[in-house]
Amino acid sequence: MSIIGLFSKWISSNVSKRLLALPLLSIALLSQPGNARVLGIGSKVLEALEQAQQLSDQKDFSGAERSLQRLQDRRLNAHEQAQVHSMRGSILAMQEKTEPAIKQYLLVLSHDNIPDGLVSNTLRILAQLYMAEERPDRALHYIDKLLARQESPNPSTLALKAQCHYLTEQFAPALDAIDKAITLDEKRGGKPRENWLLLHSAVLHAMNDYTRMEQVVNKLLEHYPKNKYVYKLAAIKGLLESPKEQLSLLEPLYETGYLEQRSQKLVLAQLYLLNGVPVKAALLLEELRSNADKPNPQDSALLAQAWMLAKENHKAVKPMAEAAQAADDGMAFLRLANIHILLQDWQAAQQAITAAIQKGELNSPGNAYVMLGMVRYRLKEYNRARQAFVKAGNYPPVEKTSTQWLEFLKQEQAKRAAVNS
């Protein structure tokens, strides 16, 4: 899952729980002795709100709504109406009816002279609901209003602001907000929150600041030691062009069975090659090849390269032949020919070069004809070797080489004639 998907999932799964808690807080305050009179909430209204809350806790949303409807014939003051809208918004949000819930919370803010706590809670809820609706621009509007009401910024509000900026690709203000949120939280003695650190790393990744991103992921590993964060750190080492450190992180994950996807194992195989461990690369690629429904040309070519680097040229023949057959051009056949030349299998080399020329789209056709001439010379097919060098002479990059070979063949022919005479 992507970072954005992770945050969206987290927001969606947490928003209803948070909405549930906020009306409870308001009602708990009102139910204290004297609060109903001071805050202008009548006992009947308070009783209906408490009942609606209890029923919604039990997921009896129809019953909760009926409790609120019993108040519709009463003359409610502004604060009472705001509390009813807030409760109805909570009931709707718990049913994932986000748009109707938003309308109810907007009605809360339409009333004057309601408690500051209710206003702040409503602003926070609206921001969360708009985030759940994937409308971070609207969420940001209410977060900024909420921050303007706070004497000192609340870290959770700043983190939500950072998420909004991140989702709207405003990375600089996102970084500023999440930096402040984490710093404030840590000053209060709190453990860095996992989702906040994930957001922090995502913002830094978007800004291509991989050095600071590495620091954040290390902090994630310190407080939340999980294999997925080891893998994330390995990916950063790749971005920082540190293949040795990247391999030291990925190899243990592979050995413990964490790397399950083909793409992950392929990265590890490439790292083995980069770090000069071709045998391990070849064995891993052989595993991938044996588990595949059919050979993958790219994997086969990489496997052949690994066996060649391991100086096991005979093991490179089959995978390179597979890659050559599947390729759109003749380049893989030339690489196959090179393997046969290293094995001094001149006949097989000739066949591979001929197949390369027939398939075409070579980077340097002239070089292919030079190779063909050399192989035929080894096979003592001198006339056919001369034909190949003559064709090579038609390509300016190898014209000089072709001429030298033709002169060499002429001298060799003269020596043989002299011996036979």
Supply the CATH class of one domain: Mainly Alpha
CATH arch. level architecture of one domain: Alpha Horseshoe
Overall residue-averaged pLDDT value: 88
Number of strands: 0
Helical segment tally?
Answer: 23
Radius of gyration: 36 Å
Commentary on this structure:
This protein is mostly helical and about 425 residues long. The chain has a domain at about 1-70 and about 80-150: Alpha Horseshoe (Serine Threonine Protein Phosphatase 5, Tetratricopeptide repeat), CATH 1.25.40. It is built from 23 helices and no strands. The chain has helices at about 5-30, 35-40, 45-55, 60-70, 80-95, 100-110, 115-130, 135-150, 155-165, 170-185, 195-205, 210-225, 225-240, 245-255, 260-275, 280-290, 295-310, 315-325, 330-340, 345-360, 365-380, 380-390, 400-420. α9 (about 155-165) runs antiparallel to α10 (about 170-185), α15 runs antiparallel to α16 and α18 (about 315-325) runs antiparallel to α19. The longest helix is centred in the first third of the chain and has 28 residues, at about 5-30. Mean pLDDT is about 90; it is low at about 1-40.
Describe the structure in brief.
By secondary structure, the chain is mostly helical.
Q: Which SSEs are present, and which pair or pack?
A:
Layout: H1 3-30, H2 35-39, H3 43-57, H4 61-69, H5 78-94, H6 98-109, H7 116-132, H8 136-149, H9 155-167, H10 171-187, H11 194-206, H12 210-223, H13 227-239, H14 243-255, H15 262-274, H16 278-291, H17 297-309, H18 313-326, H19 331-342, H20 346-359, H21 365-378, H22 382-392, H23 399-420
